[in-house]
Write a structure and sequence with these properties.
This protein has about 240 residues and is mostly helical. It is built from 9 helices and 3 strands. Strands 2-1-3 form a 3-stranded antiparallel β-sheet. The structure holds manganese (III) ion. Manganese (III) ion binds next to helix 2.
């Protein structure tokens, strides 16, 4: 009897952890029905969502420990601090979209900019990756990349350079501007191309976190090695949905 209880407890503990890591929370999934609708890019809510995969799922590029610390500490802190800033600065998170907040970020505090950006960027980043990457873009996105960069390889080189050359902490991006043209660039800190304060402006299609916390355990100072490996886990299906909206 005692042994049964112990086994049950350890089963609950183990499956609970797996549930969080795999994003299987039954209470959260229904409210995300729209976000996970097929053929639509996922909408980023104001609160941290379960990771769409296990911590070790992206081991081809990112180790499980880095994923766990990144998700449960760094990204969780941005979400928590964003919630505080929203209360302090009277943002109604039910009637405002995170995207709209980004577009008007100059009206708010540095805390809102840093943590609103941090939260948006990380939720966007998790969904930009998959263990089942197709390796390369396809369809209309691939055609647009070839049109605007010459080739998929030329695009990857340009994006890799944007990440490598971002001094200090920040992000590399592929965006679509107002004219529908694809552009590669980078932003400092937790800024993103939706922000009215950002020099690089447009709809983000793909974002890469190049803060040291994203890669240091496995790659130490070798940011280019991290970026080169990261191409193996890009979720091109999601990027294509973002492009086709
Ligand atoms: Mn990060």
């Amino acid at each position: 009897m005692k042994q049964t209880n112990t086994s049950r407890r350890s089963f609950i503990k183990t499956s609970g952890k797996a549930g969080v890591a795999l994003g299987l929370s039954a209470t959260i999934l229904p409210s995300l029905a729209k976000a996970f609708a097929p053929n639509q890019p996922q909408i980023i809510p104001f609160t941290q969502q379960p990771l769409p995969y296990a911590y070790n799922a992206l081991d081809a590029a990112i180790d499980a420990r880095t994923m766990e610390i990144h998700y449960t500490k760094h990204a969780a802190a941005y979400a928590k601090n964003l919630a505080e800033a929203c209360v302090a600065e009277h943002i109604n998170t039910q009637s405002t979209s995170l995207e709209n907040l980004m577009q008007n970020i100059s009206k708010y505090s540095p805390k809102m900019r840093n943590n609103g950006g941090g939260h948006f960027n990380h939720e966007f980043f998790w969904r930009s990756m998959s263990a089942a990457s197709t390796g390369n873009p396809s369809g209309k996105l691939a055609n647009a990349i070839i049109k605007d960069f010459g080739s998929v390889e030329a695009f990857k080189t340009k994006f890799t350079d944007a990440g490598k050359n971002r001094f200090g902490s920040g992000w590399a991006w592929l965006i679509k501007n107002n004219d529908g043209k694809l552009i590669v660039g980078s932003t400092p800190n937790q800024d993103n191309p939706l922000m009215d304060v950002c020099e690089l402006k447009g709809t983000p299609l793909l974002g890469l976190d190049v803060w040291e916390h994203a890669y240091y355990l496995r790659y130490q100072n070798k940011r280019p090695d991290y970026i080169n490996a990261w191409w193996k886990v890009v979720n091109w299906n999601e990027v294509e949905k973002r492009f086709e909206v």
